[in-house]
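Quick one: structure tokens for this chain, please?
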Amino acid sequence: MILLQSTIWIIFMDYVYLGFVIFLFILAISDLWVGVSNDAVNFLNSAIGSKAARFRTIIIVAAIGVFCGAILSNGMMDIARHGIFRPEQFSFQELMYIFLAVMVTDIILLDVFNSLGLPTSTTVSMVFELLGATFAMAMLKMASADDGMGFADYMNTEKALSVIMAIFVSVAIAFVFGFLIQYLTRLLFSFGFKKNLKWKIGIFGGVALTAIVYFMLIKGVKDLSFMTDEAKAWVHDNTGLLLLACFAVFTILMQVLYFCKVNVFKVIVLVGTFSLATAFAGNDLVNFIGVPLAGYSSYVDYMSAGGGNPTGHMMGALNGPASTPIIFLFCAGVVMVIALATSKKAHNVTKTEIGLSRQEEGDEMFGSSRVARSLVRWSNLTASKIVEITPVKVRNWIDSRFDETQIDKADGAAYDLVRASVNLMVASMLIALGTSLKLPLSTTYITFMVAMSTSLADRAWSRESAVFRVTGMLSVIGGWFVTAGVAFAGAFILALIMHFGGTIVTVILVVAGLAALIHSNVTYKMKDDGNGSDKAFNAIVSSRDNREIWSMFSKYVAAHEADFLTRLANRYLRVTNGLFTENVKVLRRTANELRQEKTTLKNMRRKETICLRHVDTETSMTKSAWFHMIFNNMEQMYYSLRRICEPAYEHVDNHFSPIPQNYVDEFCVSRDKLKDVIDGMASACAEGRFNDLRNYDYTLPALQTEFSDLRKSLMEDIRKENMNITVAYLYLNLIQESEQLAIELTQMSRAARKFQLG
């Protein structure tokens, strides 16, 4: 009987581990999806940012590249099999816990970054997840054994250290070379590059396409499944000759295409997009399916040995090479293509890099940081010194080459085709160089830093936007390092939980990880973009129709006015009620909201001012005074509400005496009238009924009189009665600021009518 039960249990556990392998492949599909969403920025941003073609065309070109790279990839993942851990020292069960911990951590980590719109490195996440899970298992084995073995016997940390070093090197090199090459290219072509192409474009196209081909030969072809050792050796031995031949052929071809009225820059950008997409899928595919494939190989080896003893079967078989069945590569390619074409998050990550590198000012996605301000201040001082020692004639000539008024770019494009070509060319060359030096560079690091440096070289970072761009760049770079720490810690904790919790807890964690991912994607799809106003902003700055611009801009301003007034009314009511009921939580929360409101107002004014620049000169001149008056009124109302909230919060937080009820009752009558007016004005602005604002020309002055009467009455009470001075001054401040709100609303009502109706 005992033997029968033991046999049943062994068979059951074999099926459980089969279930784990199936879970790994399910998680691999999710990892492919979120991984493509994250890495799409690597090969899409230049084409999309420059509008080299229609979005659908760009996606098709990239999708073909991704599919080709996936199908031709050998799919081997040495780092997942024996790059971080020494498999002969671990049992089948321990490796399954490591693989499951890695995959659950990976999909959640990458999904969080994608939801935030931040690109991160799939290579770093996978390496450090393997490192963290392996570290946990090694620590447990060392604690339970007395064989004197250390971490070096269980782990191979050299790969992780080489990745870390490559991060520092690649970030610096990519930024410096991207800046220099873009600067020289802009001097060669200028912003009005279409006038200077006749004999330059052939040579430039030859260099660019040769660099891209070099990238595909060195970075992409060397790992393709159909390449024999002899073919690889021939490519290696004849690389110089191949590149020289490519340069000659491409130079002639590009010159011929130019004379045939073909836009050579578009050809360069689309070819570069295809090559990066192909290399991404051919090389980075292993980041997504390498661990599940290693788990599959482990299970096959375990079952071929008869199964039944997951804790005693050691996995030395993973030290050998393994080939991936073509069906796995085909399915992976299909998933990646679908994700690229449909993933909303892929497009969101792409927006981040394009937004940080665009040529013109716009809605800045990041705020200001102390480090960024220091860097910008130091850079401005250094640039000023360089300008001082530069001869005037040289300075004038350089300025003429960087004359942005002559820029040739598509409507709505973030930058021109020259910069897009340089982005792809430099990224291709640097990744190929790093590969030839056997540095495990990440396409994410290279492409992002090149995009940032070329935008800096193009003087896209003005004094008004530089601090925001630097903050954004530092945020993304910081995110890469956070990835390493979070990946290590997450996989470490999950591996420990699986070890101590056993099979049941492992199943629960895997299911919970999938549920969290599904919930995140459903929530993201259901969520409004949260950037409806940003869409309107982008439409305004990209439009060329003056009447359309004014129509959109007036609605844009009206929507902001309505939103502000709605927030003002709600917070005014909350603050006063919180004061009268002595609710310190309400006052604290409102005070925090008001501190954040300052940033909201600043960003609103910045965006509206940028939009005003796109309105035709005659209209903007007549409307600008009223536009700025509206905003000044809004800003003053914001400060009035803060001057009400902060003393009220301090008063209640210190448990001072409350305002007498008779004062509360008489104040609330006028307060409710004022709130009704604010709500009415918000509704009128939202619905475009600006003539209705005339109705408040009589209501608001009457309210000012009411608040003035309350103030006079209070002053009389203070003089006649022995009142609590602290309470009296608090109530006096409340009345005065409420009266000021009514005054500002009166002025805003008039300014809004003049701005909208003339």
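Confidence is low (pLDDT under 50) at residues 527-533.
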